[in-house]
Write a structure and sequence with these properties.
The protein is an alpha+beta fold. Helices cover 26% and strands 23% of the residues. It contains 13 helices and 19 strands. Helix 10 (320-336) packs across helix 11 (345-353). The strands form 3 sheets. Strands 7, 8, 9, 10, 11, 12, 13, 14, 15, 16, 17, 18 and 19 form a 13-stranded mixed β-sheet that branches. The radius of gyration is 35 Å and the shape is elongated. The relative contact order is 0.07. The longest helix is centred in the N-terminal third of the chain and has 17 residues, at 2-18.
Length: 482
Amino acid sequence: MPQTHRSQQADEGQKERSSGSVAPSSHSTQSYASTDFSNIDQLAGKFKVPGIVRGGSEHDGRRLPDEKGFSIQVGSELYKLSGASIMSDGYLVTPIDGRHFVKLFADAQFYRLPRLQSQLFESEIFVEVGNEHFRIPRDIFSAPGDTPNYFTLGFTVFFSSPGDVFPGLNPRGLLRPPAIHPPRIPNRSPKIFADLLHMLRGYALTIQNEDHRSQLLKDARYYNLRGLEQKLIPYTITHNIDRRISEIVIRLQDIKSSQISVLSDGRKSTDAASPNTQPSRSGWVTYARPFIDETRHELILETSDPMLLNLDSVRLTLFGTTRSRITGLFQTIANKLNLPTTAPLGLMMLASEGTSTQQQNPSSTPLSEDQVKVRFGKDTHIVLDGVDRDFEELQWGLVGEQGAGEAPSSDRPSKRRREDFEDAAFSKQHFWALNRSQWRLRIQPRAVSSGGSDAEIVMVAVKIDATSNQKTRNVQRGFLSS
């Protein structure tokens, strides 16, 4: 009986071939002896036409008989499939890890399974960071500013060019797809990445110290998680009852120039330059964190870089990156106010981004001279040589709210208190070295127009930590080892 049955099948197969049918015999074998895929069990039944189609279709001329059985050999394994299974592309496959994912993807490309390709594109993201494997749900990047990022962009490029999945090779001439390495980021910390994922899931993270915060910020920027970056940046937002306004304290290096605005004394925010209106030349600089803040706050910028305060002229000398950042910030504010540009266009653009290697200084903007005008008042918190000092007892050359750079003539002492500078190495110049400081930014009309600009910027001191002599600086200096 078995021989007769096989003979009848052979006869039927011969008749079908003679009449032009492409259906092979039920025990014909398609051999891929050089192919070694462990995933063929899951890929079986995914070919050409999405879903299992019975009855008539536009592919009738190229379809295999649904009920007929076929044997396909892949490597050393033999698989028995029906014609309907071979022609289908609709089974659910869930990748286990990154290596499994790329094998499924390579097979989907090699066997031309569009539905599986689409399913893999929408699946979780598998990546190896350092020496640890991570499985990332796509909806974890749903917060504003967190997409596109390193992972979504990489997967989009991977799937958007199926013809280039195997670079330099013709897919039609391959007996088997080449090996594809799973996504891997070997030069990043898996522990820091796990902390970032913890925050992306909506949980609060205890930041251990500033080094830990710095590492989190570094990798958040590396992965282009801009919304998460803003959550990691140190800040404080409070409502100032006396000034009746919300305030934000943020570090100078964390300020995004695109989020700067000017709040005029008439309480109208200038978010963008308008060709039809002239912005007010009197007001305060405000800021809103991108992707997070819906309202703007009066800006108090903080810097821990050293600056030099001249007590006679009441002006600041800036150095290094602080000078470049302040220059870029001043230029952004000048653009908001539609002020004329005094610097070359290229230098102005580089200054605003903080990327220029050329010497930049505030005098290249229409709002300031090289040494920046500052203002102190009775509400300024002054720590001098480690001791809290009142503004009134240090009023030599310093000014109150009525002006900047001009001391009140009525109560300005004719001589400075000798003990204030008795031991100062630079007492003749009357300088303070500012170690840390916080400043508001005030826009006010310029007394004498300079360079076509009728406005100037004044840095109003909120809190400063300064030294007046080298001894205090040496006292604060620590040893490298303890």
